[in-house]
Structure formats: C-alpha cells, structure tokens
Amino acid sequence: MRRLMTLSALITAGCATSALAQTPPYVPPYGAYSGGVPAAIADQHRYENDRLRRQSEANAALARQQQVETRQRLMQIEAAREPTGSVLVPARPLYEVDQERALREGAAVRREQTRQDVTQIDEWLDRPN
C-alpha cells in the first residue's frame, strides 16, 4: 500500500512539473505599446469610434438613397395616374319642344325597360328553391 501511495505521488508531481514547463512566461498585456495600457485602451476606443462613425455614415447614405428612390417612385406613380378632377361635360344643346319631349319619352321607355329587366332578374334570384 505504501508503494502505491509513493507511486501516485511521483506521478502527480511529474504531471505538475510538465504542466509548468508548458506554460509560457507571464507577459504583461499591451507590452508592445509605448504608452502601455492607457495608450492601448485609447487606441481601442478610437478604432471603435471610427468603426461606429463609418457605420453611421453608411446608414445615413442608405437612408438618403432610399428617400430619393421613394420620391422617384411616387413621381412615377403620380405621372401614371389618370387625371382626376371633373371632366367638363359639354352643355347639351337646346332643342325644340317636340324634340325635348321625344328625348324625355325615349329616356322614360329605356328606364322602364331596364326596370323590367332588373325586376325579372331579381324575381328569378328570389325564387323558392
């Protein structure tokens, strides 16, 4: 039993020394900067601010481009739209009394015919199934 404990102690010590041998020596961070840590942090902040500024400028340019495209599309739609507004209907010429009566009677006959056709369709649609 004593032998087993000694053997396990030697193995553990050997693993510990090999782990220490593989660990690189401690190097303080930002050792390459002449100003040390404060200069490195300042550079990181400057780089990040530059990145954010470029991103903001790109977003603003995209927004301006989309506004221009939107205005162009609206102008195309407006140009394609049919003109609104009342089209002036030319005034109907005045006729003789007999002609006016004939026009009124003809309109009345057309209205009556339309009414008959519509009621015939309505009656057919309302029929019991």
TrEMBL record:
Keywords: Signal. PROSITE patterns: PROKAR_LIPOPROTEIN. It comes from the Bacteria. Residues 1-21 form the signal peptide. This is Uncharacterized protein.
